[in-house]
Amino acid sequence: MQPSASQPRVTAILVAADGGDHLDRTLDALARQTRHPEGLVVVDAGSTDGSTADLAFGGSAELIRLPGHRTFAQAVAAGVREVRPVDADGPVDEWLWFLGHDNAPAPTALAELLTAVEIAPSVVVAGPKLVHDDDPSKIRDFGESMTRTGRSLVLVQDELDQGQHDRHTDVLGVAAAGMLVRRSVWEQLGGFDPALPDVDAALDLCVRARLAGHRVAVVPEARITSAGPVEEFGRKRLTEGKRVRMHRQAQLHRRMTYAPAGLLWLHWLMLVPFAVGRAVGHLVAKHPAAVSGELAAAFAVAFGGGTGRSRKVLARNRSVGWAAVEPLRVSWRRVHERRTTSRDVELARVEDAPIARASFLGDGGVWVVLAAAVLSVVTLFPLLGSPALTGGGLLPLSTTVGRLWQNVGYGWHSIGTGFTGPSDPFTAVVAVLGSITFWSPSTSVVLVVLLAFPVSALGAWFAVRKVTTRAWVPVVGAALYAIAPTLVGAVTSGHLGAVIAHLTLPWLFLALLEAHRSWAWASGAAILFAVVAASAPSLLPVLLVAWLVSLVVGWRRAHRRVFVPVPAAVLFLPLVLAQVARGNPLAVFADPGVPSATRAPSAFQLAIGQPVPDWSGWLQASAPLGLPVWVLPVAMAVLALPVAAAALGAMLGHRWSVAGAALVLALLGYATAFGATQLAVTGVGSTTTIIWPGSGLSVSWLGIVAAACIGLDVLPRTAPVAALVATVLAGVTVAPAFAAFYLQTAAIQPTSGRVLSAYVNAEAQANPDVGTLVVDPQPDGSLSVALERGQGSTLDDQSTLESTALALSRAGEQLTTLAGNLASRSGYDPRPALRSLGVSFVLLDDAGSSPEAQAVHDRAAGAIGQNALFTSIGETPSGQLFHFDGTVDRTSTGSAAAHATHVAYLVVLGVVFGAAALLAVPTAPRRRRATSNRIEAEEPATTFDEERDE
């Protein structure tokens, strides 16, 4: 029976894509309609779950199977093509009704839709009220619109349906699911835009219908269920990056389609630059997964085509201007209101989150930091006001920030005879520090040393607060960590990397614990991981173990922690490859900075936390007393016993698992320190030296302090007394080390920043590459030789590739041959070597107190002084200086390829660390109030935007 001219004919297009959980219910709902559609086309859009295998239709219903996966819009378009035209005597009002397998309509849904379009003939597209399939009382989608920039918005979403929006039926667009559209208009407009296969196809169709002079309306009485947005239709899982790409690509395509012809070129030019800026914004907003989608969308629209066809279709059917749809677009004021409401919802989600009991300002945190600052001023008073430091593992930094960054990464390095290769990762840390005090880069090193004690106390206070509940316990932890023998020893011996690692470890510990909560914490952990690893490469094994454990323990949120080592890997990869190519992979763990001799402590001394054999200065201080050898070790063990007892006692409390993890960390740190004493890879003069074990002991001390504080936290009323005793006795163990500058035992000392003599510095002003051959007599009667450029070596010049080399280079052999012949009378002509190496000065260092060194010094002074090629400048603070009167060649500064590689590597570092830094910057306020006595570490994870972060 053919429909009459006055009766609308409806064909339902039902799309199924792996919809086994919903399809039967939707078909049953269609069968129960009070107004049945005249035709039904079921489109199988590549189902693989067998949900359509048993379907069979006849008469006015048919089944179409499409090969491969199809989106909802593509499947609808294919289904419409299968709808045969009606053979009738007069015109027939044909309508198309689009449904998905999850769109079960209420019994009166189609009747209500048809009633709406019959009452208002100008309405050519009508949409239902989409509700949640699992909770029909909540609205999923009720009308769509867009901003002036083309961003699509659902007008009503995830609200309880109380009829509050039923009066607003005139809208710019409706969702594709449940859409009823007049077929003649569908064919006139060309259907869904093929360039919008995933999202916004329905909105675009409605916009074109509006511009063609028609109306679009929502029908609140027509209710249809929906299991999710259209982009999730038929997909088991949709990543955040792909979701962003779909929506952004649709928005950009529509923007290009709707733009005036005169501005089209400007929109096209700005596609990629705007995408880069928005990608940075995604990082700042803690949505790293959206970055790739943002960039991919811009490139797809800019170079993928499709805009031309869409603009032609729009122009062909357009009969009214954009002013006709302007009242239906969403204003910026409303967008702002929606964002404000969304932010309030986010805050409400964490409003009741518990906090730790201790307050930094109210419970002694600020006071222990101030006490540590006073201790620093008293201990390091001779360093106050100094522009630079030298001695031990320290040298001044380069005088300009540009020079600092020139030494970072793969490229030409002028240290020694010069080489092309990677720098130490620590050079990047030094460059960042020097850039902070750009007017005087070396001042940053002075500040790090002076602030070491208060900063370590600050970090330890927050780390201990994380695992304890009593308000005063973090103060004890901060005090113990600030007076650690490893920190005092690293400060007085000039191990800058070890100092930075000690200061950073508590924050890394805290960030790793919190990394599951948000991308800000995870990115902060990544940066801190890289800083610790670069400052103390010997900690790489324990850091990787800690990272792997955090992945296993927090496997449900591993997607955030998995990227933590990436910045460190970018820093270390060139150096690792270079050392492996040399056949010396263990040299990767060598200490950065100036190579300095370190005496190996015993295993017992390491167990008590002593990084050097002098027992933190007690060996020299107790020498006049003539005590038996065994007294000092026993006394130091007794002094360390209260802290150890508190740490072990924590295993008897109810938080034994957390304390056990801290003790395991302490054991890993001890193993790292012990391993460092067995590894000698760095050359110092005529010998090699072990790796500084203090960095491993810093890890061990952090674990012991955390466990001890947990033990104190669960003790009864005697806990404060025990804490006071433990802290005082721990302070006694390092008392002489704090007095190192007054006892003249400190290796570092203030300096003006000048490494070589004023005469060489003056020459270096005119010739920055002037070479100075430094000859240093050794206690064993040998000579140590170094070649310094310009005003002398700086801390950022240092390279473990140079200090751990297994063999001399050809230039190095030439240098040693030159120095050996200059230090004794021979028939050797030094002029070719001096010329090719660019050596204009020879500096003979003082010999010290060794008779063998003095004999070598006197012989070298006589040989060089009597050589007619040299003019004696005289004595300098560093030794005797001679000037070569001949001309020398200008030294190499590396090839063009080395310079290009250097720039490329800096760009890579900037991208990786810049992205991590943007993610690490907190952007959302986190107001909290205490509602529980549970410690923060035991609370469930929360985050503002869990779904997007995944």
TrEMBL record:
One Pfam family in the UniProt entry: Glyco_tranf_2_3
Statement: the UniProt record of this protein carries the keyword RNA-binding: no
Superkingdom per UniProt: Bacteria
Matching InterPro entries: Glycosyltransf_2, Nucleotide-diphossugar_trans
Keyword RNA-binding: no
Record key words, sorted: Membrane, Transmembrane, Transmembrane helix
Membrane-crossing segments per the record: 256-276, 288-308, 365-385, 445-464, 471-500, 520-550, 562-581, 627-650, 662-684, 690-714, 721-743, 903-924
Residue ranges, annotated region (Disordered): 927-950
PANTHER family in UniProt: GLYCOSYLTRANSFERASE (PTHR43685), SLR2126 PROTEIN (PTHR43685:SF3)
Protein name (record): GT2 family glycosyltransferase
